[in-house]
């Protein structure tokens, strides 16, 4: 019976069917297994580390370990960012491939110290002048009624001076607000008022600053002829004590102290302020951050030194010396004032060799009534 079933349902030979030998089937199975194992190991290795060398593999392992022990600790990433090494960016321009400049932190720290020193220098200058005024009072001369008057400054000289003076004082005040306001004004007037004041000061400073490009050369051209330096200027400084005691060393139209202000405040410091200010106001010059940081520090140093010297000049030109403000306001000085403060210049006027001349007190000049002799 079993033999009959076997013969009836067993496999039958088919002329169109090719039977694969068992040895071939074993060989193909081996190849498939080898390929599968290779793919598995490759995927596992890529999943474990993307490194292509031992150093990167070690760094990747350390990063993985750090994420397990200290989640969200990206110190190595920021260390690389702060290194200042150029990276890859699609933004074109200078330093666009540097995210953080590490020298900027040094600039911020040094800047604070410079502001403190500069503020102290200005405070000492003002306090010293106030104490001197309280002790000594204004430097005065005794004028004689009806004495002759000298036109010390022409209208062009006075216009050049006041144009620069108004511009310069405006920049000095706004500059002090921007640099010292946060430490001095903010605690007194509060955040709201100080924010408005700082915004106004910044805009005024930035827009008024370029006017110095015109004011400084104009002043230089008008006054350079009177500010030559010689041996007599050195002697004036040697005898400077007599200047404050009423026994001045003879000088020309400008004494050595005024020449010092001319060459340092006008020529040196104002030129530095113009150049460094343009670098700061116009970053589209394609300068680097380091260039702007150096310009900022240079601008502050020159500004504070210039303001300290300017405080002395303003003091002596207003309340510190009688008759000095009148000379720049109206253009005239008394004969006795000229002889006392600028003896050599007065002698040149008397001899007729100076550009300036005597003017009669009651005689109108160019439609202006010349005031009588006075010392205010």
TL;DR?
This protein has 376 residues and is mostly helical. The protein is built from 15 helices and three strands. The termini are far apart.
Describe the structure.
This protein has a domain at 103-139 and 155-326: Fumarate Reductase Cytochrome B subunit (Up-down Bundle), CATH 1.20.950.20. A three-stranded antiparallel β-sheet has the order 2-1-3. It is an all-alpha fold. The protein has helices at residues 2-9, 22-48, 54-69, 75-82, 103-136, 155-184, 186-208, 212-223, 231-238, 240-245, 256-281, 289-317, 324-329, 335-341, 343-351; strands at 149-151, 332-334, 358-359. Helix 5 runs parallel beside helix 12 (289-317) and helix 6 runs antiparallel to helix 7. The protein has 15 helices and three strands. Helix content is 66%, strand content 2%.
Name the features.
3 strands, 66% helix, disordered N terminus, mainly alpha, 15 helices, elongated, Fumarate Reductase Cytochrome B subunit, three-stranded antiparallel β-sheet, 376 residues
Element layout with pairings:
Elements: H1 2-9, H2 22-48, H3 54-69, H4 75-82, H5 103-136, E1 149-151, H6 155-184, H7 186-208, H8 212-223, H9 231-238, H10 240-245, H11 256-281, H12 289-317, H13 324-329, E2 332-334, H14 335-341, H15 343-351, E3 358-359
Antiparallel strand pairs: 1-2, 1-3
């Amino acid at each position: 019976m079993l033999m009959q079933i076997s013969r009836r349902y067993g496999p039958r030979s088919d002329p169109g069917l090719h039977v694969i030998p068992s040895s071939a089937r074993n060989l193909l199975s081996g190849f498939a297994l080898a390929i599968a194992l290779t793919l598995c190991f490759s995927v596992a290795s890529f999943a474990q580390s993307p490194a292509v060398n031992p150093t990167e593999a070690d760094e990747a392992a350390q990063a993985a370990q750090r994420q397990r022990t200290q989640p969200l600790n990206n110190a190595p990433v920021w260390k690389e960012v702060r290194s200042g090494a150029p990276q890859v960016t699609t933004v074109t321009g200078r330093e666009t491939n540097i995210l953080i400049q590490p020298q900027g932190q040094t600039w911020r720290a040094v800047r604070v110290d410079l502001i403190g020193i500069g503020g102290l220098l200005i405070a000492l200058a003002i306090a010293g002048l106030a104490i001197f005024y309280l002790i000594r009072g204004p430097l005065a001369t005794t004028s004689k009624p009806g004495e002759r008057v000298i036109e010390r400054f022409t209208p062009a000289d006075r216009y050049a001076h006041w144009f620069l003076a108004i511009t310069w004082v405006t920049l000095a005040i706004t500059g002090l607000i921007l640099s010292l306001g946060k430490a001095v004004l903010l605690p007194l007037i509060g955040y709201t008022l100080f924010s408005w004041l700082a915004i106004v000061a910044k805009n005024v400073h930035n827009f008024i600053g370029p006017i110095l490009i015109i004011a400084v050369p104009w002043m230089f051209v008008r006054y350079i002829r009177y500010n030559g330096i010689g041996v007599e200027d050195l002697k004036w400084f040697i005898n400077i004590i007599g200047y404050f005691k009423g026994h001045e060393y003879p000088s020309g139209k400008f004494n050595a102290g005024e020449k010092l202000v001319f060459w340092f405040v006008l020529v040196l410091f104002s030129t530095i302020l113009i150049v460094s200010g343009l670098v700061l106001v116009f970053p589209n010059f394609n300068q680097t951050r380091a260039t702007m940081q150096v310009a900022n520090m240079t601008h502050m140093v020159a500004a504070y030194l210039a303001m300290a010297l300017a405080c002395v000049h303003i003091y002596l030109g207003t309340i510190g010396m009688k008759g000095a403000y009148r000379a720049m306001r109206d253009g005239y000085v008394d004969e006795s004032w000229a002889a006392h403060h600028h003896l050599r210049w007065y002698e040149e006027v008397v001899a007729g060799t100076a550009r300036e001349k005597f003017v009669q007190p009651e005689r109108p000049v160019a439609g202006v009534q010349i005031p009588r002799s006075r010392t205010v």
